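Bench log, entry 3. Co-assembly request; chain sequences pasted below exactly as received.
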Amino acid sequence: MRLEDFLLMRHELLLTLIAIIILIAEIFTDDFKKQGIRPLSIILMAIVTIVGFLPAPTGTLFGGMYQATDMRLMMKNILNIGALIVFIQSASWLKSDDNQNKVSEFFLLLISTLIGMNFMISSGDFLMFYLGLELATIPIAALAAYDRYSNKSSEAGIKLILISALSSGILLYGISMIYGTVGSVYFDKVSVAYGATPLQIMSFIFFFTGMAFKISIVPFHLWTADVYEGAPVNVTSYLSVVSKGAAVFIFSIMLVTVFQNIAAMWKDVMWITAAITMTLGNLFAMRQNNLKRFLAFSSISQAGFIMLGIIGGSELGMAAVVYYILVYIFSNLGAFGVIAAISNASGGKENMSDYDGLYKTNPALSLTLTLALFSLAGIPPVAGFFGKFFLFTAVAEKGYWWLLTIAVLNTIISLYYYLLPVKAMFINKAETSIAYFKSDGWTKVGLIICVAGMVIVGFASVIFEYIRTLSFGL
Amino acid sequence: MKDMSVALKFIPLDHYVLLCIILFSIGVLGVLYRRNTIIIIMCIELMLNSVNLLLTAFSVYHSDPTGQIFVFFIMVVAAAEVAVGLAILVMMKRNIDSVDINLLSRLKW
Amino acid sequence: MTFLFYLLAAVAILSALMVVFSRSPINSVIFLIICFLSIAGHYILLNAQFLAVVHIIVYTGAIMVLFLFVIMLLNLNTSNEPHKSQLTRITAVITGGLLLLVLIAATKDAVLIQAKNPADYNIGLVKQIGQTLFKQFLLPFEISSVLFISAMVGAVMLGKKDSKKN
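Structure output for the full assembly:
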């Protein structure tokens, strides 16, 4: 191993470096200087995000255990963008009195989950995959319980850690069966030797179930709404966007490469679960009044849509999945950013009825939320439309017409409920709507990035074309 | 110690597989059966241990040390998981004065 | 050897059942320790000496002590824990039984698995494991250090006392 080989791992190494810098800054500064940790972490994260886009060599390390291809680097960059936006959005929330003495912990835990996700995406064997997955979930559970004196927050934390431990147990059982039948944990060896004996099919089902818990596919979604509602808004946004995105990325990579021999089988399983996930997520989202629960169910149904691209399975399908996640990061973080800003300014108002008449008092925030919801629903001018369009194309290309019909019907249903908050903000009259407030600089920057992302990613077709050129070499 | 004989010479592999299945099922049963959060975490540990035993049996059967390394890392992760899980559990006890998982079931559709 | 296997297996299964069905949490912990010790016995039977030692140190030594400590600290040792409703419990038992049946049916051809390498019963020795760990699996070893740091930070963050609030 030469020194240049470390360049392949620059995402992980840089993130580890800034984690160490923040740790040292926390230990060796007094209370006054700790104020500087917030801007320091955000600036460091921004630097890492930008450095990630610089061209870099590709290759494999540690005997195929670590794989760096252009596509995987792109996925990591997308996750970095998401994490950066979450960092910026949480800056003003972390300034409050309750959170002031655990600022660096927040950043440290988020960065370590990001390290885990990056290693997970680059993994070339099940051991690295498992370690990355755990590193990406354990600290998040601690973060979900960040609000130490709130019942809901501790509920979210205990549910998340129990579900993640249970699903890892199921996942590991599948992995151990795969190891038993194949005799190796390396992806390339497993993909060659994988057949369709009963044992292997069962191991795949266990593996699928474990991952379905992590991505919250119906029927393994029941934890999602409670955890999303209980965790602090900024943690929820990270959980629903970056964590979910990372799990989807590695899941699609593994389905297409490791389990390619049984593609016909997993496509059937995915077909059914995708249809149920979209439909149930939508139906439940309609009934929600709390906006965080609302977005939780909406994110479940979005997971169903993302699965369409994986079923497409082609190079177009992979590109559509990655592109959709990029769009989803901007739209969902835009929506969560507005909800977080309003919740922080109004003392925890998160219900849809609280948003009546918001346009009169806070027009800028209302417009941002509207744009984000339009993008999630897939209404033409915004990027979400193109994302859904490419996913549908990928499925249609392979001739899954029934699935396409279900997906289109679900898009129409989702239009209805995505417009409910918009109606509340613009049309509903209220005696006491949330008073006008001035967001601070960080929040504004975060929302501006999201809005810019939603518009630019939609109109600049280069981005999709670029992702498409990458998706040859997974 | 090197010339210690190995049980797999005498006992077929599927006995180990069966034992691990039974332990795993008991773990799943416990997770579904009990209300006490700390016992649910213990049952998840039981599931992880059945996986560990299975991996070791396969590893010895294939004469490939990878499986045993995997077990080592599962132990490492389990330790970290339990540390965080119990910390959250202590917090939950402090907040709602109970470790009963049913008190948390507000599952609205 | 065969007798030892069946003895340890019986102990493991019985104590695992007792973990689920015993009334007080302390008893559950004790039975779980017995179960883990018998699993360590299985490791020794398989000549996985390194794992046997690590298993006893990590699981029975560290993790179970942590459990006991929390139970003592929070005074959770009440045996009058309310049970789930009868229906839920029956459903749980049926689900567990069905899982068991399906798994047994699916794994009944496990005997057909071909061993990948010629038999070498020394792979579980500390020397062999150490060499594999630090040559082939160096990267995961380093990642686990990040995992421990983040778990430590998380646990400390949750347990830390607020200076302002009381």
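The mean pLDDT of chain C is 85. The helical segments of chain C are 2-21, 25-45, 49-74, 86-106, 126-135, 138-159.
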